[in-house]
Amino acid sequence: MGDIWLIGLMVLVYVCFPKVAAQNLIKNPRDQKTEHTLLINEVNADSPGQDTSEFVELYHTSGQTAHLDGYYLVFYNGNGNRAYKVLNLQGKVTNSQGLFLVGSSSVNPAIVIPKNTIQNGPDAIALYYGKGTYKEGMSVTNYGLVDALVHKTKKTDRADTLVRVLTPGRDAFLEDSTFSTMDESIERCHNADSQWIFQVAVPTPGTDNHCILTSQLNASAVLISEVLAASSSEEFEFIELQGPHSTMLRDMVLVLIDGRTKDIYFTMDVYGKTSLDGLLLIGPAESKTPVDLPFPENTTRPVLRGGPNAIALYRGNSSSLVPGKALPVTGLLDAFVYTTNDELNPELLETLTPGRPAYEEKRHQLGDMSMSQCNCCSVTRDSLSYVLSRPTPGKFNDCPSKRFSQTLSFCLRVADCQEWLVKSEEILMTLVQALDGSCSCGVSAAYFKEPKAACQDQGLVFTTLLTAKSEDQLSSLLLAFKTFLETPRLVSFDRRNITAESSCFKDINVPDLPPGVPSEIPEGTQEPSVEVAKLLINEVNPDNPGGGEDAEYIELFYTGRTRFDLQGYWLVLYNGKNSRAYRVLDLSGHHTDELGYFLVGSSAVSPAPMIRLPPNTIQNGADAVALYYSNTTLYGVNMAVTAEGLVDAVVYTSRMLEKADQLVRVLVPGQSILYENDSHSTEDESLSRCHSLSAKLQSSFQVTTVTPLGENFCSRSSALAPPAVRISELCLASGATRYRFVELEGKPGTSLGGLSLVFFSGKEGKAYGSVPLRGTIGATGLFVFALDGGHGHDGTNLTFKDISAASEGSSAIAVYSTSLIPGGTKATSENLVDALVYTCEPSPAGGHLDFFGPSYAVPCKDDRPVSLSRCACGNASAELQFAVSDPTPGLQNSCPQDAFAVDLHLCLLTPNCSMWTLHHRRMLESLGRVLVSSLEENCSCGVSELYLQELNLTCVGSLVKVWGQVWARQLEQQQSIETWHQGFLASPHPFSVDGRVLKTSPECVAPKNAPSVSHSDGKYEAKLSIVICFQLSERGQGHGQATSPCEKGNAGQATRDLW
């Protein structure tokens, strides 16, 4: 019902707000639907000849894969105003960029239509959503209308009825008929005021619209757009100019200059008409690629030389600029200087591009590579505006796009910060060199937008938007940036070495911070960004006084305190009664304000929200708000609560008796639900982030007065005490390795004074070593102690050599809030802060260290180092547990993930179900230990019982059915689990579960469809169904006496009955 109301509201908004009376102005963003939707993106209704290249391109504004169920595309004839073609898009899906193509077979569309189907005009194309009856022959309607384009080919054409019904206040779009000799389309773009417009351009079916606005092209100077140099006379070379579209160029001269001597070595007059996109291609006449202006006859090839070299465009003619003559300083329109070494003449730079460096030509990739201008259309005489790209002669340049972008931020530790504020370009060039040296991606300064510098705490924070040409390139660049900041490093500026780090925050105790300023640096959560700054839920106001509920809102905050692109983020609202999503908002295409705030809320909220919701949308509780990030997962209404892609969450209620246990378990495990105090009945209040910048931490919030799009009103007295320090990771010695450490976690700035780290032997339950702790938890929330005489990242080390797991019994490491504990002291719970018990061989027998908690088994036979890492239990358990993992000192723990899950289905034969049903939990635990032991014995890939998720069983008659999952940390480990499974099924494998001998049966037949591998939007995800049939015998009973559906051909059927 909520979806129907939403559709009705969207239609009402579309119909009731008149459009500005401009031919190509579509609508003001404030008047259009605030959530992402499907739009008509490009139309080519009239192609040269027999209309064999016509198409309609749709675009989902999320920029991601989207299902088109419920949408209809309708084509109207302006003569009679009736539909001549209707396409039902049910079951169709856009591509990964949100594009969907309908058209002639030549454009490779998702839906093919016969040639000459789309009428030239005056006609219309309309997009509808809903359950209306849309069929050919129907009269034009605005019922369920989402978007429409009324178009014509002559100025005198009229389509009054279509305009009145579909696009009131907006005239039919004139597809300019002056370009009769070449193909063109009507493309949707944003204008300078961020309003949607349509304009005429070169067709781009199935790819991004070029969207260089006609007004920009007409106003721009002629500039050097692309350069491809050749190494021999046989290779293609060209220079491409860009200027006003379809315009005659004259009285210009192209000049080539030797970068070492400053001598002119080539000139030619420039004349000719630019293309529809404003391009003019200059190159050899005999090339396979047709050029607009050929090089003069008898020109020695290649014309363009390798660097150092310069290209200049002057007003005038070639007679005034002859080889050997000095370069003039007047009449210069544009210049591009490039080099491969340091031999460039500095006077040449000062003449052609004063104050700007030359472009450093680097060839990282095989094949021809152009140097392309990527800051169209007003930036001239700036070589930093160019990037290395694939050649695109006569077409728009292959440039990085904001579609593939990420904000980066890092800190330079400088004492004189104010002096560095003017050095943004120098800082940016240092970053460019570091990233390009790391990934060899051909990155240059033009990949970075909106560089900003600001003083903060103990240094200068530099923030910039990194753009890329693809997801793969963006991933490579982000990995290079992560490497750049993995450890504090020295970078050189003006012969001064400056330390670059991820954050400028200093490690101080919480009380030293001023009131209202969050005191904790975010911990390492799984987020898209590799920098310290994060996007968080900052304030939630779900319940307003009275019955209007028209001032509800959710506020997000980017901790980098700058404009932040929300591409890939989702906001999901969950109902606590069924733990399912009742509202999903795709935030792609939106961004925060300049201070990092983003507001979603009702219309009465002031300041106005960026996304508006109907009144009474946000439920009062017990419910939840969750923030996700994913480029592959599609979150939808009515989905079950999930932690996949989770960035932050708040679970709340306005009534003390209401609970949302499942939401708490999945979103904020081990924590309590937040209570929005309703005692302020005459005054509105909200849940505001006040105590930390930690994600998914309920204690970060308190009840305050409302402050939408402003700093939260936090009282100093309400600040919570820092959480207890706890053990995050223990790296144990295995074999001859000396790689050992203990990692603690806690609130940044927490002092370790007064705490002791104690090592216990389980044989007698006594301490055999103790060290008093010192120092404070750093900005990352982690503190690492090296245990081998080496140094942790804090410089602290211990000298215990025997920290390996005991071959018999258990060992433990514990943190106590007391002074040094003497050796031989028995383990006690008094003053205990945290503890971890570990062993080589798990034993059901009790021990002296049992009160510390569960004992975790670790593989002791390998020579490689192995860690026990604190991880969230995937089965939504309220308590964090430890898992075997690779060592990650000072970094986020390496934990098993459901993204690398292997589905586990077991089928067992038993003479008697009673043991399995009466001792359900014990049998599950025993079976889990056996499976983990078998897996680790086979693959030695470092798994433990936490890798088994949601293990369960049923027993009916003589058949025991077991199901669950095995998670992995990474793809390689998942593949090892798959190999184990294949070997497990290939031959009989006897083992014992709680005294009962089990054996795989070669006669057991698995379902044909059991193994499955799936791919999701380019991100590899595999789930392997494992169906195993066992024969089981109790001691003292004969084997094979019971019959079961699991025998021979019936095994597959038995499993299908369950699954």
Q: Enumerate the spans where pLDDT stays under 50 for 5 or more consecutive residues.
A: 1-34, 215-220, 506-532, 716-723, 789-802, 875-879, 1001-1059
Going by helix content, strand content and strand pairing, the class is mainly beta
Q: So how many helices? A: 12
Share in helix: 10-25%
Number of strands: 57
Instruction: State mean pLDDT (0 to 100 scale).
Output: 75
How far is the N terminus from the C terminus? 32 Å
Considering the chains and any ligands shown, give keywords for the structure:
six-stranded mixed beta sheet; mainly beta; 12% helix; seven-stranded mixed beta sheet; single chain; 1059 residues; disordered C terminus
